[in-house]
UniProtKB/TrEMBL annotation:
<feature type="domain" description="ABC transporter">
    <location>
        <begin position="21"/>
        <end position="251"/>
    </location>
</feature>
<dbReference type="InterPro" id="IPR027417">
    <property type="entry name" value="P-loop_NTPase"/>
</dbReference>
<dbReference type="InterPro" id="IPR003593">
    <property type="entry name" value="AAA+_ATPase"/>
</dbReference>
<keyword id="KW-0813">Transport</keyword>
<dbReference type="InterPro" id="IPR050093">
    <property type="entry name" value="ABC_SmlMolc_Importer"/>
</dbReference>
<dbReference type="Pfam" id="PF08402">
    <property type="entry name" value="TOBE_2"/>
</dbReference>
<protein>
    <submittedName>
        <fullName>ABC transporter ATP-binding protein</fullName>
    </submittedName>
</protein>
<keyword id="KW-0067">ATP-binding</keyword>
<keyword id="KW-0547">Nucleotide-binding</keyword>
<dbReference type="InterPro" id="IPR008995">
    <property type="entry name" value="Mo/tungstate-bd_C_term_dom"/>
</dbReference>
<dbReference type="Pfam" id="PF00005">
    <property type="entry name" value="ABC_tran"/>
</dbReference>
<dbReference type="InterPro" id="IPR003439">
    <property type="entry name" value="ABC_transporter-like_ATP-bd"/>
</dbReference>
<dbReference type="InterPro" id="IPR017871">
    <property type="entry name" value="ABC_transporter-like_CS"/>
</dbReference>
<dbReference type="InterPro" id="IPR013611">
    <property type="entry name" value="Transp-assoc_OB_typ2"/>
</dbReference>
<dbReference type="GO" id="GO:0005524">
    <property type="term" value="F:ATP binding"/>
</dbReference>
Amino acid sequence: MTVDSAVPSVAAPAAEAGATVEFRGLRRAFGATTALDGLDLTVHPGELLALLGPSGCGKTTALRMLAGFETPDAGEVLVDGEDVTRIPAHRRDAGMVFQSYSLFPHLNARDNVAFGLRMRKVGTAERRARAQELLELVGLPGHGDRYPHQLSGGQQQRIALARALALRPRVLLLDEPLSALDAKVRLTLRDEIRRLQQELGLTTLFVTHDQEEALSLADRVAVMHAGRLEQVASPAELYARPATAFVAEFVGTMNRVRGTVAQDGTTVEVLGVRLPVDGTTALRGEADVLVRPENVRLAADGSATVTGTTFLGAATRLTVRLPDGTLVKADLPTHEAAAFPAGTGVTVSFPDRPVLVDSVKDH
């Protein structure tokens, strides 16, 4: 007997798929190490949110709490307003894809995809039909009879993704699913994950330490550091208006140049020019000014020196040594960078726009 009501069709309307996920005051410690320190975060229905941060920041712990593999010391996990904090993993309506593909080696691709359906007592014919539908969805319609050892890494991860989607979960959890793949396959599968997520309307959490991956894939990015949430924003806002120095330097490349913050904290003098401070700061006097390479301007002649160039395609990155020894990176259109070969004396300046300031660090 098939159980159609328990397992919605893969092609169910997107509006019915997405769930609201809330983390409320989550705390978790492992011995003396604090993995989560009061995490508050909401994921909207149908949204792909990336949890981004360095190793040990708490992002995977948060994902495992949503999956039901970890229990918080304090706080709650809610899905569509329901407190699922103490509900076992097998009773949560979530699909999870791991970094390691975790396929059953003794099952072929079709049976791996259908495994969850079999556990739900779905009939054989229905299981096979839905597994085939999912294989087509992930672009592997002719691979159902192959075993994991007969598949490439990218194909195995597609099968793992299809298996996670088989029960049509309200929430899809991806724990660094691309990190074990080579660069070309990673890019292709990244696009496929985004296409499937949008097509199905699934609320998705994607854990990664790769900033490029997060910025290219997510609707919003939550940057975490030392168990705390630093900033949640769209990729464009995160890059253009980082809320903290940590976010500024973790997301993209950032220069640090010594400056002096005015006593009222609203402006900073750097390279002989006074610029407005972005936001508010308690710093006064000597501080570091944070500026992205594309916002560094170069002019011919001056006391700074171009020490090297790196071709990036449409842009070229120049490394410039300031008179105080500080190294600054400047990204220029390649046709403009040709005028500043290594050894050229230049003047460095920044555009008249608000800049982030931070306490002084060694350059």
